[in-house]
Amino acid sequence: MARLDEVYRAEYGRCVATLTRVLGDIGLAEEAVQDAFAVAVRKWAEAPPPNPGAWIVTTARNRAIDRLRRESTREARHAQAQLLHQPDEPEEVGPVRDDQLRLIFTCCHPALSPLARTALTLRLLGGLEVAEIARAYLVPETTVAQRIVRAKKKIRDAGIPYRVPEAAELPDRLSSVLAVLYLVFNEGYAATSGQLLRTDLSQEAIRLARALAELMPDEPEVTGLLALLVLTEARRPARVGPNGELVVLAEQDRALWDRELIAEGHSLVRQCLRRGQPGPYQVQAAIGAVHTDGPATDWTQVLALYDQLVELSPTPIVALNRAVAVAEVHGPALALAIVDELDLPSYHLLHATRADLLARLDRASEAVAAYDEAIALATNDTERSFLAGRRLMVQAPPS
Known about the structure:
Rna Polymerase Sigma Factor, Chain: A
């Protein structure tokens, strides 16, 4: 059922968002969509219908009606009456007109904790599994699962409505919305499992970021996020080789990069610079602009931007990325000292970075051990294969 898996990845978030609008209940919408996909397993034995997303929405709506009919409470009967009389295209009110974008804002209600907001939205919008969300946050899967359950309960118990937020409410929810779009894109650019790329997720994140930029054109961080996403997406054609293998930035064929996206990203970065209100996404976008400007990366400029980013967002991940720039400007020894101070024991990229730095310092046995740790922690097949190849090169360097 590979085709069904593809439909699930591409349509789950859209279907949940549409059903949430129709049903007015996030939990019921998700359960109905899951029921519809369970029916699809039986019904799509030969081939999916011409419009799989519409089939899932229709089936989910019918399953929700059946479920409400079996309920005996007054609330359930009232919900059923509303659903039966729901127009196919109800009038939209307020500034957010995209179902999925509206769902993001709804899940990013201030009554929910920051992790609960983004975890719930990633689950509902992108159809991400708990393991994928846990990797994005570098927290245990049980923590994410508990937060999602609590968030749904909070929405139900507190009566948080599914509604379009008023314009005045949008800025208060912006940081969580930006974080969600960024994480959805990252899962598409470096998937937790399977193949390296999930272009459906990365492209959906860009589409929603464009919609958000149209909605909030005066928010510099919104422009910065869009710039960051398109500049990163521009490098995607060169990110994998002819056999699907991972190709790191330094080895990519820049002729394969998408010049239209690069031009768009650079234009957006210039807009950010003119505003003079730097934020984390804008600085990351500026780093992306440097990487895509000219035949080679100006690492001195990248390091200067990472110095600024560390001030704005002092996280271990930012510090690790800065260490990569330090290695290019000041050498691997200084970068290794920085990496060894970071507390990211379960993050495979820390061990992969450390292994590369050790190999560059001719500390082969330590590099092999670091690669072993990185391989053990990596969950994506493509990344594991890449790391295994680099490990072999350290063991038997080319003559």
